[in-house]
């Protein structure tokens, strides 16, 4: 059977057939329309949209997800669940996009790509911007600064369009699942932009790329991810650049740090809602200052009775610290991600006593899921 043979992919009115033709040809699929009344095409009915047989898989991905490949349709989508991905256009932020799209496909959620750039007049804070590639030195006078700000804004917008095009190509190729997405470029400190978006839109998840542990330790106080992790009251998934990310259905081994309080149940419920159909194997680790053997056994029994898709085991009770526990467990098995429940803390507590999530962020080259409780 020849791959050049034309097949009919749809039969529509002329107007709808023409819209489909435009959509497919915009993304590289040649289309022929048949049964068109050339004298008065607007009254034609039963117009056949025909493509080469070899283009069928690609055409179906495009047609079945038209809202992804026609961004203007997104304006009609209201009330969608959102997954926020702050991006700096690096390879690692694209890795975060991959994770976000895979989770969005499970929940029929929309991925929101957010890039924040710094006004060049704020020179003291310029090193904190998300993108190292868009780092400009400010000019000597206000006119030069304004020109530079416009250039930064233009480059950021162009980079976002390039990222959107890359994502659509990956969806067309079947590399990414067909989740809806939109984007935004704003001026401001990245951590403030993320907090502001989260406070307004309440995304179901924030996915952020991070650098490797060795590198982030050298930039401890400049980490945007750490700032967001400590201050934002949303579920946050961090994705280290050194991590190989499996598909969601292949996630298996999880370390869950238990507080020994009712917060553990809230955290596990949130994890279950996020990954309801994934067969996770969860190792429960009781935090040294909270855990008791009796309490840990009670949590283990509860988990086994209430989360049937998951399997649970209990790590020996530690008398040292959670970071040592992570190292001990990770030596014996591959850990796909870590789960930590985080409670709201005031700014002084965050400054002088970093959260466990913060400590693990800079210690472990493993994805970390921080769930507010």
- Beta-strand content bin: 15-25%
- By helix and strand content, what is the structural category? alpha/beta
Measured as a percent range, the helix fraction is 40-55%
Radius of gyration, in angstroms, nearest whole number:
24 Å
Molecular shape: globular
Number of distinct helices: 13
Q: Give the SSE order as H and E letters.
A: EHEEHHEHEHEHEHHEEHEHEHEHHE
Let me know the average pLDDT: 79
Report the strand count.
13
**Main sheet overview:** 10 strands, mixed
Strand order of the largest sheet: 6-5-4-7-8-13-12-9-10-11
Q: What is the end-to-end distance? A: 59 Å
**Model regions low in confidence, pLDDT < 50 over at least 5 residues:** 72-78, 123-128, 215-222
Features:
ten-stranded mixed sheet, three-stranded antiparallel sheet, 13 helices, 13 strands
Briefly say what this structure is.
By secondary structure, the protein is of the alpha/beta class. It is built from 13 helices and 13 strands.
